[in-house]
Amino acid sequence: MNVQHILNRGRQLAESLMTDQCRVTHMGKPVTDPETGLVAPAANTVYEGKCKVQTSGGLAAENTEGGIVEALGAVTPVWSMYVHFPYGTTGLLPGDVCELTEAADPNLKGRKLRLLNMQSEKSHATACRWNVKEVGNSNE
């Protein structure tokens, strides 16, 4: 059995499921606009290409955001979100923002996800997987 051959095939299959497109940016040092004098963070694109959004979990957790759900003592499912990039994708860092520019699911297009930490640190990875949290989510 040729492990490398099987691993390469697994990477090809994993990448074939990456039908969404995204742009990952890293916030650089703030820059001052010479015309307006306004200071804004500089966003540097560190990756642009294919990806896949994945969820997992669904474990019940107490709702801590208030409202009717909390008042009734109900629980809500908590989902973990991941973004998968092709194997060998480098240059991504915790805190970078992944914007979905094209997505098979129209509800995903335009959403921004903050990269939290790499989830695929293992010997025989078939993709570069990151735990993410939606930008602007109250739990971020």
Features:
140 residues; globular; Thrombin, subunit H; 2 helices; six-stranded antiparallel β-barrel; mainly beta; 6 strands; Phage associated protein
Q: Strand arrangement, largest sheet?
A: 1-2-3-6-5-4
Poorly predicted parts? none
The general outline is: globular
Rounded average pLDDT: 87
CATH topology: Thrombin, subunit H
Tell me the domain tally: 1
Number of helices: 2
The CATH class, by name, is Mainly Beta
Helical proportion?
Answer: 10-25%
Structural class: mainly beta
- Per CATH, the architecture is Beta Barrel
- Report the portion of residues in β strands: over 45%
Q: In angstroms, what separates the terminal alpha carbons?
A: 45 Å
Report the order of strands and helices: HEEHEEEE
Rg to the nearest angstrom? 18 Å
State the CATH superfamily name: Bacteriophage SPP1 head-tail adaptor protein
Number of strands: 6
Would you kindly provide a written description of the structure presented here, covering whatever features stand out?
The chain has one domain (3-134): Bacteriophage SPP1 head-tail adaptor protein (Thrombin, subunit H), CATH 2.40.10. Strand 5 (112-118) and strand 6 form a beta hairpin. The protein is mainly β and 140 residues long. The protein is globular and about 65 Å long. It has a six-stranded antiparallel barrel. 13% of the residues lie in helices and 50% in strands. It contains two helices and six strands. InterPro entries: DUF6093. Pfam families: DUF6093. This is Phage associated protein.
